What does this fold into?
Amino acid sequence: QKEVEQNSGPLSVPEGAIASLNCTYSDRGSQSFFWYRQYSGKSPELIMSIYSNGDKEDGRFTAQLNKASQYVSLLIRDSQPSDSATYLCAVNLYSGGGADGLTFGKGTHLIIQP
Amino acid sequence: EAGVVQSPRYKIIEKKQPVAFWCNPISGHNTLYWYLQNLGQGPELLIRYENEEAVDDSQLPKDRFSAERLKGVDSTLKIQPAELGDSAVYLCASSFTQGSEQYFGPGTRLTVT
It folds into this structure.
């Protein structure tokens, strides 16, 4: 059973601060990890992908992966009100047939307070 | 570059009626996915295509759901007959290859009354 766990929130962060979003996954065969942002009534938008242990930075976003601890995180620096959304963690498991479809967490609702 | 296109954006039908959703993936993307998203949940995979072959349809309720991807490009997802519990957002996504980044279309919001 593939599971991806996220704290549903809401997570409230003051504008300009760092928002930290966390995700754990159950299957050690997982090899690709993604963060999606979803505004209310919209579809998921890919913001970060990470494939190897360590940090990956893209603008104000940093993804962190620790495969030994089965843990993925997303840091958002200098948080803006426009960052208020639901953030979905997604994991791609590789089975005998290749990469499966993504398994998503339920998402963390992030609120940036002006 | 055009993104994933889906139609219709909204659909309201009565239970027991059929409904179909259409998806056009990003040009050059060989892998196409259909997901279902209920309110407050993450998307759940229904079916995955590699070109025109359905390589993972284990989560597709085959008694009422069907899908096809003719010529390995556009895809159609059909429900017949629809049930009240099918009300959800149906998302199509595509990726260049399996395991690479997936990009989602705007989705179709289905309401079954």
Notes: DSSP finds no helices and eleven strands in chain A. The mean pLDDT of chain A is 93. The interface with chain B takes residues 4, 31-32, 34, 36, 42-46, 49, 88, 90, 92, 94, 97-107 of chain A (CB under 8 Å). Residues 92 and 98 of chain A are 10 Å apart (CA to CA).
